[in-house]
């Protein structure tokens, strides 16, 4: 569906995206996350044919995103992060305009989405609140049931109830076999719907995997209380354990991956209590960002 090979995009001396390689399969919901300025929006603008790569290539449906951009855009839905819509048009006339360009009939789907999002289709867009303008943008991206949906910060300005409905909608799109490329700096919304997540920072793809695979990299803060104080040296070289400290009868350490070696080391003593606090995915990604800052 999407094939990105050695993609780089420079703005003069500024490197926005640096040698990015990524492949996304049909029917996949792919979460593309990173802090502001990481390169997410630049990558998306290359995907939809708005920017020409400095180096590398990007293909969708087997076509080049730059030279075949018009054909590709006929089959994708796109919601930009810096959304701007024609202020004097209504949402209905806006969606009808794009439908004519694609030579499709989207009237029924537009009405259905308007009911779902509780949006007045016949009110001028310039009179809508920020949240309702975002709804209008979502409807224009979804109304023609695209094969690929490219979304840049799609829930910005939506209230929590609409955010929930949007995430459910993403699940329905996956069930229908549609592909979604979802960019966000909000991990929670991506984690709930994505099959895989890619982490970008400073223009480089730092990590990619399923939510389960990324969770396997989470660290646990472990506290073990013993009947008698153990020697700190017993835990200094235990596999998967770092920052081991002894405070009286209490061992405090950080464990990554399997805890088997730690538990076997602890079992040499009488264990009174064990406490484990798992690091959240949010904390894992913050650590990645700091490492590459």
Outline the secondary-structure elements:
Elements: E1 2-11, E2 14-24, E3 29-33, H1 40-47, E4 55-60, E5 63-64, H2 69-73, E6 76-79, H3 91-102, H4 107-117, H5 130-142, E7 148-152, H6 160-175, E8 179-184, H7 187-193, E9 196-201, E10 204-209, H8 211-215, E11 219-226, E12 241-247, E13 250-256, H9 260-266, E14 271-278, H10 281-291
Parallel strand pairs: 3-8, 3-9, 6-7, 7-8
Antiparallel strand pairs: 1-2, 1-4, 4-5, 9-10, 11-13, 11-14, 12-13
Task: Describe it.
Helix 3 (91-102) runs parallel beside helix 5 (130-142) and helix 4 runs antiparallel to helix 5. A hairpin with a 2-residue loop joins strand 12 and strand 13 (250-256). Helix content is 32%, strand content 31%. With 293 residues, the chain is an alpha/beta fold. Strands 6-7-8-3-9-10 form a six-stranded mixed beta sheet, sandwiched between helices. Strands 2-1-4-5 form a four-stranded antiparallel beta sheet. The chain is built from ten helices and 14 strands. The protein starts with a strand and ends with a helix. It has helices at residues 40-47, 69-73, 91-102, 107-117, 130-142, 160-175, 187-193, 211-215, 260-266, 281-291; strands at residues 2-11, 14-24, 29-33, 55-60, 63-64, 76-79, 148-152, 179-184, 196-201, 204-209, 219-226, 241-247, 250-256, 271-278. The protein is elongated, with a radius of gyration of 24 Å. The mean pLDDT is 89.
